[in-house]
Amino acid sequence: xxxxxxxxxxxxxxxxxxxxxxxxxxxxxxxxxxxxxxxxxxxxxxxxxxxxxxxxxxxxxxxxxxxxxxxxxxxxxxxxxxxxxxxxxxxxxxxxxxxxxxxxxxxxxxxxxxxxxxxxxxxxxxxxxxxxxxxxxxxxxxxxxxxxxxxxxxxxxxxxxxxxxxxxxxxxxxxxxxxxxxxxxxxxxxxxxxxxxxxxxxxxxxxxxxxxxxxxxxxxxxxxxxxxxxxxxxxxxxxxxxxxxxxxxxxxxxxxxxxxxxxxxxxxxxxxxxxxxxxxxxxxxxxxxxxxxxxxxxxxxxxxxxxxxxxxxxxxxxxxxxxxxxxxxxxxxxxxxxxxxxxxxxxxxxxxxxxxxxxxxxxxxxxxxxxxxxxxxxxxxxxxxxxxx
Length: 389
Prior knowledge:
Shape: globular
Number of helices: 15
Order of helices and strands: HHHHHHHHHHHHHHH
Largest sheet: none
Distance between the termini: 37 Å
Number of strands: 0
CATH class of the largest domain: Mainly Alpha
Structural class: mainly alpha
């Protein structure tokens, strides 16, 4: 394939994935204003976020199954058009109940890109190039949670809460048109080498170790990120380093290490990079937990330890996701769905378990992240042993 065409496909897949993520982050600043605009209370307004996440989980499973049976290029286009339609339904909602129901459908309809993109990237590039491409893909994707809320907050006083949904409508329609024009350049899906659907993947030990190792490492980082606003408003308040600084330096280091992973895997091998990245992430959570037990309250120290988590994920993320896709024996769509759902589930469970203790300080999120990171390291060790057997 021509280099320009490959770049175009990469860009369209990235844009479609970012658009799906923006369904949460772009809307986030408007959540507190919804009860006044549509009635209801703050608890119902939070369900606007929860409904999208629940819908996304259903969509991941659904598109994973559909992608193994039908042409993923057409499914991606259909997903974008249905995402536009459900986003318009959200924008036209006249009650919180209607908006919550529309958000469930919106989350489900926008999940296709997250399911199809990893497999398409793997087919678009050779193995080493695919790891590099996944690193670049993930590093740009990581900017969405940082910048989408800023854009949403800027739109709110100008066009109200409905404006963010109309922006999603326009973006989805535009991407669907561009996808149709570039359809022939997208790589067609391969059929799974081993039939059996999700059940076969869940019996595939090599895949599960790689998939859950990736999911738990990312979940460990997100448990800390989701706790950080409360921590910086509480025990870490009043210091020169704040939550925004934590995010900026963390994302910057993740981008640097993720983009270096393609070179490093060629230089040192898959297993070495998986082991190093997972161990670094675990070390970061271990130091955070030890520091919290010692009563530490320095935002600078917390940020430095958090950087180890970001570096570890950047090093092992692209190669780990790529290796999981390879272990799935061509069943890329279902495999991607399982990886993302495992990450969402682990993050949600970890966040929910530490939430009652968050006002007490750093210890609960640090221990929660440590448990996830230890599980990730255990799974990675098993995976490395399996590949060397």
